[in-house]
Amino acid sequence: MTAADVHRAILAVWRIEQPRLITSLARVLRDVPLAEELTQDALVAALERWPTTGVPEKPGAWLMATAKRRALDHLRRRRMVGRKHEMVARDIEEEQQAMPDLDSALDDDIGDELLRLIFTACHPLISREARVALALRMICGLTTEEIARAFLLPDATIAQRIVRAKRTLSQSGLAYETPSGEELSQRLSSVLEVVYLIFNEGYTAARGEDWLRPRLCHEALRMGRVLTSIAPHEPEAHGLLALMELNASRTAARTDAAGEPILMLDQNRALWDLLQIRRGMQALARARELGGAGGFYALQAAIIACHAEARTASDTDWPRIAGFYGELAALVRSPIVELNRAVAVAMTEGPEAGLAIVDRLVGEPALKSYHLLPSVRGDLLHKLGRYDEARAAFEAAAVLAGNKREHDLLRRRAAAAGNAATSS
Amino acid sequence: MRFMYIVTSAHRGPPTAELLDAMHKLADREIKAGRMLDNGGLTPLATGARVRIIDGELSVLDGPFVEAKEVIGGYAIFELPGKEEAVAMATEFMQLHKDLMPGWEGTCEVRAFASP
Fold this sequence. Notes:
heterodimer; A: mainly alpha; B: alpha+beta; four-stranded antiparallel β-sheet; two-stranded antiparallel sheet; 2 helices; 6 strands
């Protein structure tokens, strides 16, 4: 084993244990940023010791004991602050004596604590970007460098976001607790938004790019699964999980051998991941059982489920999809949803009907630089035999496409439309 | 990355109650952590069958099989960031066997899926 192998092996163990470490410390310290710091200290200690001593037999227990010792040291240093901390210190000491026993480590149900941690990391007081970084760091155990690489940003940018977010958390004196009632659904939507942002960042990344980008999908999926197990009565948590599982099920089919994207209707459905589809359908069924069929994520999942259930592209139940898009459009009033509805309507009633919706969206400020608007328009125009207009639309779309592979695909479609125009 | 864990052992007979309990707790933790996607135990090999091709001849053999030594007892499917995590998980799982079922010998094979 090289030093780098040992380093990776230690990080691997740490990542499995990290949520338990941070939640246990947060429980006694009532301070998430501090708990996070001390958890990091335990990692540093492991990185210093384990390369010479070897990984201990019960690494989780070792990390827990070390982290709690750090917490205890920290509280001792602040003893003069007041008697209250002494009591907390005594609590930790008592807890520490009960540790590091394997059975209790396994018994310890951290569900509620973890939920509290997730709510804190995704607090609406923190900017959206910082919430994403904080969640990846505190819940998924990614390092600052890993987060930076995954988002194609400099380390310093992410480090700064995390520092600022932690400062906001510390200074605001936020109650470290699980919200309830009206506030719960508001706060939960902030959490789900963060998870979905992380998923999409990874999902839109083309293959062949840094492996850390697809890794974001896995972390988001994992967070979605965690949420559905610790907040099992929240339909939208199941809806989001369903949406992510069903989308991720197509990963292997989304690109060809050269890494070029393949549109969903052209994909080889034998490559769709049945295990993941099954999991997605179960999550969607659960969301519906809980009365959440009309939720923002559940509706999107329902649409993807229509595709997942179709054996071939021509079996797709387009009227049903158009109906779900109609419901979704009534719920969020988003031009992007409307654009998607146009596609489904075109498949149900013909390209003319779809184009009518798309044309109403041209000039929509929110879609000004959205490449899929001219791309969909080009597709419908092509189907209607209006090749010159289709070519122009695809070219406009190619200019707007941010991803090189998508750009190339649109150029090819523009060329095909151009050829069709000259030969017709 | 997705990994399959295949546990094989020559040991006959069920796990101890303590081991079973600890394995359930570990599985529960891993499901809640979103890492374990699927798992299952298999009924004894004696109740299974083997369909094989030897020397170009296809044959169907019902159990029990006299020559069987190492037998697959169960499997699990995990989604993890990489092989290091996969090995760490397997190590934790096997440590339970070492602690709670003395004398047990076996292998937990860790294999990455070819895709995705």
